[in-house]
Amino acid sequence: MALVSPSILAANFLSLEKDCQWLNNSNADWYHLDIMDGLFVPNISYGMPVVQAIQSVAKKPLDVHLMIEKPERYIQTFADLGAEFLTVHWEASTHLHRTLYAIKQAGMKAGVALNPHTPVELLSDIITDVDLLLIMSVNPGFGGQTFIENTYSKIAKAKELIQKKGANTLIEVDGGVNIHNAKKLVNAGADVLVAGSAIFGSEDRDAVVEQLKKS
Asked: Among 91, 105, 20, which residue's Cα sits nearest to residue 54?
């Protein structure tokens, strides 16, 4: 079954604890936390105080996605905040290999995110050091965008690279994921599905999570 990581960016921030308690009691697997700085992406999301508040009630792993410039500045900060996965963008990391090892040394699992225009082949030399490969199926920065159809072939290429190199990397996909495209994403090779609006905008969140997991 696919792992499901609900995107907290789509939660109701006026009742965030309530949404976190729902996630704790659901069959979803991780908390997906999008950190945006208004520089690497045009939007600003939330920062350390919100992550700390979520961590204080979370009973499932924190899957932190840094959409920020110079992400290496905050590795230890997010380790201290309890992140299990810390994902940085290839496009934002000048010394990506060094950054991945710093994440691991801080006690977290290291992830790399790729924007829609970035080919997976660029990770050929370091894929065995990547615990989580996050493939963006929309341009990062805002929720509710239209899914990019080229994502399926990109996931398939990523799976082929992982298998060729003998890596243990999980493939995560984020952006426009819903119950209608989830099965095709998993068939292409996705292991983890990030969904925001599809879950938090539904009248029956538990049913959506189950459908995503069974895809």
From this structure: 20
Locus of tokens 């069959």: 27
Q: Are 4 and 36 in contact (CB under 8 A)?
A: no
pLDDT digits (tens, 9 = 90+) for 64-106: 999 999 999 999 999 999 999 999 999 999 999 999 999 999 9
Asked if residue 104 lies in contact with residue 110, where contact means CB atoms within 8 angstroms, the answer is yes
Strand partners, 113: 89, 134
- The structure's pTM equals 0.96
* Residue 79: φ, ψ to 5°: -65, -45
> Given the structure tokens 């950190």, which residue do they identify?
35
22-69 pLDDT, tens digit each:
999 999 999 999 999 999 999 999 999 999 999 999 999 999 999 999
For the annotated catalytic residues, the residue numbers are: 34, 174
